[in-house]
Amino acid sequence: MKLFKALAGITGAIALSTGSAFADDLRWKMPVAFATNLPGLGSPAAWVADNLTTASDGSIQVRVYEPGKLVPPFDILQSVSDGKVSAGYTWIGYDQGKVPAIPLFAAVPFGMKPWAYIGWYYYGGGHEMLQEVYDNKGFKVHAQLCGIIGPETAGWYSNKIESLDDYKGMKIRFAGLGGKVLEKLGASVTMMPGGELYQALEKGTIDATEFSMPAIDQILGFDQVVKYNLFPGWHQQFTAQYMLINKDEWNKATKAQKALVEASCTAATTRGLAEGEYKNGKVLAGFQEKGVQADQIPREVLEELKAVTEEVLEEEASKDADFKRVYESQSEFMETYKVWDTRAYVPADL
């Protein structure tokens, strides 16, 4: 009996000294909305999975499933919330029909630059509001910002866009709140995953599409089908991706495991932005050599788009309390950020 007590005491001492040595390991299946070969958009998911295994010494292992291999891209939120999978990696703006405020955390027309958005998200209460928004709509997920890229292009078109009237009757794939803006302009807006867009353009199912930044659009081959590429990406000045984790799985994790997830996703956010910024200029220059016409939207047309955007944002705020609260928080931050932004950065043409 004395020997048993002594061994028990030693075991307890080891457990106390090693902290999480006897914590349960986490084994998560994580379907992703974007192929992991897409820079800045899909690549952070693979990087986070590898980094979590290494940093946790195997305590956290995340198996990544490419789009559609385990869960359809647009079903990730529901599957994670229901516990069908432990985690998912996605652009959460796809779920605006279920959670109206969600696009504000994903991409906002005429919204913040990427670094301004992460400033608001980390220090302006954005992370906490995001958890509340999901809770208020009954979804059992913990959301962690886990990737961000800079502006998308304003889309790929078969014919030149010379005015907003050209959108009337157009069949176009356009995401998030920007899609609502184009609907107001008379476009027929549809949503489909990135992997289906090349074929849809080629067959004429859609007349035009936006998807992402040049480094990604090149991989998807849009320049092989249509030759008009519009800038700037007014509808998505930032595009944020998130790791969604089932709430029960998150609650099972130790403080150390949670800290590793948070740290890995924060690092992935930086790396994703860096990858896009590094690659886009060279790819865009290559497009022009292939005969792609990169057109700039005239200032007066941008002003018209911004006016319609403001109407859409106000309409959405009037319909959903969470949207209103988040929108007001972001707008308040931007009022002071603009003072810094307009004074501190050297103009691009210098």
Report on this model:
- By secondary structure, the chain is of the alpha/beta class.
- Helix 2 runs antiparallel to helix 10, helix 6 crosses helix 11 and helix 11 runs antiparallel to helix 12.
- The chain is 47% helix and 15% strand.
- The strands form 3 sheets. Strands 7-6-8-5-9-11 form a 6-stranded mixed sheet, with helices on one face. It has a 3-stranded antiparallel sheet with strand order 3-10-4, with helices on both faces. A two-stranded parallel ribbon has the order 1-2.
Gist of the model:
The protein is α/β, with parallel strands linked by helices and 350 residues long. It has a six-stranded mixed sheet, with helices on one face. Strands 3-10-4 form a three-stranded antiparallel sheet, with helices on both faces. It has twelve helices and eleven strands.
Indicate the topology.
Elements: H1 2-18, E1 26-31, H2 43-55, E2 60-65, H3 76-81, E3 87-90, H4 114-123, H5 126-136, E4 141-149, E5 155-157, E6 171-173, H6 176-184, E7 188-190, H7 197-203, E8 208-209, H8 214-220, E9 228-231, E10 239-246, H9 247-252, H10 255-289, E11 293-296, H11 299-319, H12 321-344
Helix pairs in contact: 2-10, 6-11, 11-12
